[in-house]
Amino acid sequence: MTNIQEFTTKEVPQWCPGCGNFIILAAVKSALSQLNLETHNTVVVSGIGCSGKDSHFFRTYGFEGIHGRVLPVATGVKLSNRKLTVLGMGGDGDAYGIGLNHFIHACRRNLDITYIVHNNEIYGLTTGQVSPTSMKGMKTKSTPHGVIEQPIHPLALAIASDATFVARGYSSNMPHLTKIVAEAIEHKGFSLIDIFQLCPSWNKVNTAEWFKDRLYDINEAGHDTSDKKKAFEKALEDVNTNYEKVPIGIFYKEERATYGDELPQIKEKELINHEIENIDMSKTLARFK
Ligand code: SF4
Predict the structure, then answer these.
(1) Burial, 223: exposed, middle or buried (Cβ in 10 Å; 0-12, 13-18, 19+)?
(2) CA triplet 76, 82, 88: central angle to 5 degrees?
(3) pTM for the whole structure
(4) For 123, left (φ over 0), alpha (ψ -120 to 50), or beta?
(5) What is the pLDDT of residue 183?
(6) Per-residue pLDDT for 267 more than 90?
(7) What is the pLDDT of residue 32?
């Protein structure tokens, strides 16, 4: 097991007291350490929002991208060198708002990337506006009369888009979260972990108290993770029970060839190991003169 301190940088997070991001960060580091991963073979790509600086807190390779573009950057990294373990870390605005299109395509392509989404159901960094996952009726700074739209259902969307590993964690249950993050990283293919993340500063609806009697572990309840139809039903159970029952755990898991396994240019040889000496770029460069 790699020492967890090996994944830690000197940067100190500036999150608010009680923010769920602290536990998520600790759970991901713990999973990397349990899996005995090497820091120099791991890459963390982050986006914009309160989770945006995640890539600064891991002593791995990292890239802080722009809003909604975690997955295009992570895709480039993975396709360049398939041997790397690539984690994408973003928020609900990042993943399901501005980056939604990338999310759907990453699911169907089955890129071998682990996507960890800090879903606090609100825009935290910009001080409390509606996000794509804010519940209907929720009053925020930008929706003072309550949200009138239906929220995005990330897990149902991922399953419908053919993702091969779909899970949900909770930021106040670190052992459970660590376990599913580790399993997601080990999964060969695209894995989504949507994490209910407490934001005590701005989300006054989905609090620890709110989650307390609603959350339950579907895997402990005997859910069959190979049953896609059942997984889709479970992914909508929260909204269909008017949030009386909110499942967490691994919803769906399937083995399927990854994008890298099928792409002729890289399936035999990593892009970084291709010969470049004999490539003639002169015609291409001439077009830009
Ligand atoms: Fe965490 Fe919310 Fe504070 Fe952002 S605003 S650091 S999500 S508690």
Answers:
(1) middle
(2) 50
(3) 0.95
(4) beta
(5) 98
(6) no
(7) 97
Domains of the chain: 16-262 (3.40.50.970)
Give the pLDDT score at 2: 84
pLDDT at 170: 98
Residue among 12, 14, 21, 197 to mutate when testing ligand 1 (max atoms within 8 A of CB): 21
Which of 140, 199, 203 most suits a substitution to test ligand 1, by most atoms within 8 Å of the C-beta? Answer: 199
Protein residue with least CA distance to atom 2, ligand 1: 199
Do the Cβ atoms of 223 and 167 come closer than 8 Å? Answer: no
The DSSP bridge pattern shows strands 114-119 and 85-91 to be: parallel
Radius of gyration from C-alpha coordinates of the chain: 19
From the CA of 203, give the closest atom in ligand 1: 2
* Dist CA 250 CA 169 (whole Å): 9
pLDDT digits (tens, 9 = 90+) for 113-153: 999 999 999 999 999 999 999 999 999 999 999 999 999 99
